[in-house]
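Box 3.1. Reading complex inputs
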Amino acid sequence: MAVLQADLIDLTHSWVMRIWLLLMGFLVVVTVANALSEGAPAEALSGLIGSFPLIWSIPIIIVSSGAVSSEAGVVADSILSKAITRYEYILAKMASRLIANIGLYLVIVAPAAYIILQNVEGLDGNGIIWAILTIGMFIALVTNLAVAFSTLFNRTLVAMIVTWVLWYAAGGIFSLLQSDYLSPIRIIENLPDVLQGTYQTSDQLRILAGFGIPALVVVLAASLYFARKDL
Amino acid sequence: MNIIETHNLTKIYKNKQIALNSANLKVPEGAVFGLLGPNGAGKTTTIRLLLGLHTPTAGSVMVFGEPMTPNAVDLRRRIGFLPTNPQFPKEMNPIEYLDFVGRLCGVPHEIRKPRLAGLLRAVDLLGASSQKVKGFSTGMTTRLGIAASLMSDPELLIWDEPTAGLDPEGHQHTIALIEELGQTKTILVSSHNLSDIKKVCDYVGILSDGKLIFNGLVRDMRQMARAVAIEIELEGDLDGFCQQLAAQHAALKWERQTNALRFSFMEGAVLAAELAQVLQIIAAYPAVTLIGVTSLQDEIVDAFINLLEEERAHGFSRIFDMAAADDAVHGGAASRPD
């Protein structure tokens, strides 16, 4: 808990987080205004939610890939030489980055969805929840991936670049393969339908599993690797 | 009982660099143990292995009778570690950092807060308690590291080069602190500074090129000094005295300085008897007056250098030491072919 709390406090001081929050706040205002004036709420909200895997994965990766590598010297001297296991440390780091990224996503998306749902017709409440959950799982996977690379590389920039390359390459490959459950483009294209309630629950569960299972595998692999690493 | 015990502890980094080679280190309970060695000898690697920060390539580490692993939380709770040139979270101030360390070590809130205040006062950082660590000088960082290592009131302290970067006053205070803490705790302190080790340690381990070449009492190490030397400052007819010395006491080994003579006595000599003989010769020559007698020899330094030289001079025959160590591990008798 001490590491989790300290890391969250650290993140509140992060300029990337602050700038990201400001930009997102502006985007929310534009999205809500657009939805209210133009009367196309599903398109407007899917634009906001769908921007996370494509555009906002950049700050997500920046915030997450420094989790361990940015404090390479500090980890051994000040933290892991004390009474804490490697697993506790890496899980605390992953938890704090997940809380920061998914927390910011929910703080931005949930009020916008609520305002649009209350004022414009054409959106389905359950569909909104499914859409938010799907992209949330997306964010969880990219966050865990970036933290995992952060344990692997001692330089934050290297961890960042490797995560970006892997993330966009995997997205591109799955889109080319026209995978229904793993292609970000496909999922974003389907968001307006999901928001309007046109979806199969089983499909949504498959998409969640498609991102959720790799996210858990990444946590496990990073923990096992970090537990054996020389610091 | 040994608080720390390693068996054939070996660390090879990425199959490229042998940092530690079959070290059998023993640190008895209550000892102030000095880990000595030149830079790059393997002191920091040894310490990181003792703390579970590195995993051994071969061999084992036992601390408090239990194997040390990267996840041995209960063992590390009983250890206070001060790294060399420590790095701390830069955005924290000393109060936040010590509180963080206390929480990591499971120190309850009602003990943690007064203890951190007391420690900050003790290491003279009260005035800097609101400053961020990133603005600290080397000396301030080391002092904060000392305070952090004491936050959990540990039974064992492992301090890696604790006097590095300290000013003379800080250096003196740290040595005094080790002496005081050594009365109640087991301490392992690494240094390449022999005078520090000589002042505070009762046990010593010497590392050379990753090999532990001595592990025992400082007293025993002193006896390994090969020779002692003294300088006798004289006034008067030094030329005449030197001529008489050369003519009548050919067995004595000496050399002339400007106003003094340096006498060297070989290994095994009884210093008091040799010195008495020299003083009698001076007393019997009234044309010179004795001004002062100074010991030139630092037995610890001499023993340290001897050990390093002997280890290097061993050459390829070191392979037999290695075979003996292997036999000891496998329960066989050590043998050395003719």
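In summary: Chain A touches chain B through 25 residues (CB under 8 Å).
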